[in-house]
Specification:
The chain is of the alpha/beta class and 425 residues long. The protein has helices at 51-65, 71-87, 96-112, 114-117, 131-147, 162-165, 178-190, 192-202, 207-213, 217-224, 228-242, 250-256, 259-276, 283-290, 293-308, 323-333, 347-351, 356-359, 403-421, and strands at residues 32-41, 121-127, 151-156, 314-321, 365-372, 378-384, 387-389, 400-402. Helices cover 51% and strands 12% of the residues. The model has no long low-confidence stretch (mean pLDDT 92).
Length: 425
């Protein structure tokens, strides 16, 4: 898939949508949407800091001073310099591309589910207190209101909201204690998986890619004290991320890297996501998923109220947050194809157990759309990145599921996660 969609090479860095969007399937006859529950990641942003860009810039400038760079290498240096300069004063902020992604997603939501919004109503829109999430919310909601001007919006980013928007950082300590947080940080920074990943990277030879940017790979590596794979992975990561604020191009990266090399970098990066962000089969990962309980309960609670007509005039609950919470949420709920397996010493096995790039691009979205027929029966579909997602639930109407069955499945998943993570009372 990497050779067809280069955007998927580095998970979590991909721009939205990760691949071209398909058509939204029609609902079963007689069913109309009446409520939407949404949890999403902010859109494309700038890097959180510029230290990595600066280190790479210094390295390339040194190589250039030694006349080691080819014309392509000089062009790479130019893009790194442009990314570094454009980054200044924008650490972690939503980019113009990110704003565009969320506006377009809001417009598609309005277009695909007009019955939810056409009679007006209230949009409850909460977000993380990070500005990029607030800006993502504003852009999404703006498109909804442009399509349906009678909608009213309730924006919120309170401290209480953070238990839902950021359930690990602003944790309920009865769920996620300081001891648990420290143990996970230790695993993230010094776990065995990190040592194995570096050793695996040491075995990869990217001299052919390096030769595209330098006249002498041997002199370049000696002068910069670099390793061919680790340097070329770092260069790719920074230039690939820079596409999120419209610096460089994928066409330029294709001058340097083959599809096979992109796939190797995908394995290297995806393995880190499996071992750090979320997977099944490791106590820290199971704990991260179990700690999504406040968010999952929020989704279920407002879903119940929508079905019972107890949400007042509210027709949608929107939540805008971060990849750190999006990943364990989707894994916790057990959607088919989103079940990465923790394998500490198997990079290929772990990395290919899920397509992380398809799960968590910038602007990733999780939408549950509720439908009702004239008899009052309720079906719910889930769209992950605006594509239908399925669950291991027997249903003649999949990917549409009865709310009662879906609700029971989610509660069963939470109970199982509580048990394996040690949080069960």
């Amino acid at each position: 898939m990497i050779e067809r969609y280069h955007n998927l090479t580095i998970p979590t860095y991909s721009t939205y949508p990760p691949i071209p969007l398909g058509e939204v399937a029609d609902a079963p006859r007689g069913y109309e949407p009446f409520y939407i529950s949404h949890f999403g990641r902010h859109g494309s942003r700038y890097e959180l800091g510029s230290k990595a860009q600066k280190r790479l810039l210094v390295t390339l400038e040194k190589a250039d001073s030694l006349n080691l760079l080819t014309d392509v290498g000089k062009q790479a240096l130019g893009y790194v310099r442009e990314a570094y300069n454009k980054q200044q004063g924008n650490n972690g902020q939503l980019s113009a591309l990110g704003a565009k992604q969320l506006r377009e997603m809001g417009a598609r939501t309005a277009q695909n589910f007009p019955e939810v919004f056409q009679n007006g109503g209230v949009i409850n829109a909460r977000s993380s207190d990070r500005q990029r999430c607030k800006d993502s919310r504003e852009n999404f909601v703006k498109s909804l209101c442009e399509a349906y001007p009678t909608l009213k919006v309730e924006n919120s980013s309170t401290e209480q909201d953070m238990l839902i928007m950021r359930p690990l950082e602003r944790r309920d300590k009865s769920l996620y204690t300081e001891e648990m947080a420290d143990a996970h940080r230790t695993h993230a920074r010094r776990g065995e998986w990190r040592k194995f990943r570096k050793e695996w990277g040491d075995e990869q030879d990217f001299t052919s890619a390096l030769r595209v940017i330098t006249h002498s790979p041997e002199q370049f590596l000696a002068a910069t004290k670099s390793h061919s794979f680790h340097f070329m992975h770092r260069l790719f990561s920074i230039l690939h991320f820079a596409l999120n604020f419209e610096v460089g191009s994928d066409e330029f990266l294709s001058q340097i890297y083959t599809d096979e090399q992109r796939y190797t970098m995908y394995l290297f990066s995806s393995f880190a996501n499996v071992c750090y962000y979320g997977s099944e089969g490791h106590p820290y990962m199971d704990l991260r998923q179990a700690c999504m309980r406040p968010l999952i309960e929020d989704i279920i609670s407002y879903g119940d109220k929508a079905v019972k007509g107890e949400n007042g005039d509210t027709v949608a609950h929107l939540r805008f947050s971060h990849d750190t919470y999006f990943i364990p949420l989707v894994i916790a709920l057990g959607y088919d194809g989103y079940n990465p397996k923790y394998m500490e010493r198997d990079i290929v096995g772990a990395a290919t157990s899920v397509n992380y790039s398809m799960m968590i691009p910038m602007g990733a979205s999780f939408q549950m759309v509720f439908y009702r027929n004239r008899r009052g029966n309720v079906l719910v579909r889930t769209l992950i990145n605006e594509q239908d997602a399925t669950l291991p639930i027997k249903s003649s109407t999949a990917p549409f599921y009865r709310w009662k069955e879906l609700r029971e499945y989610f509660q069963k998943r939470m109970a199982e996660l509580d048990k394996v993570s040690g949080l069960a009372k």
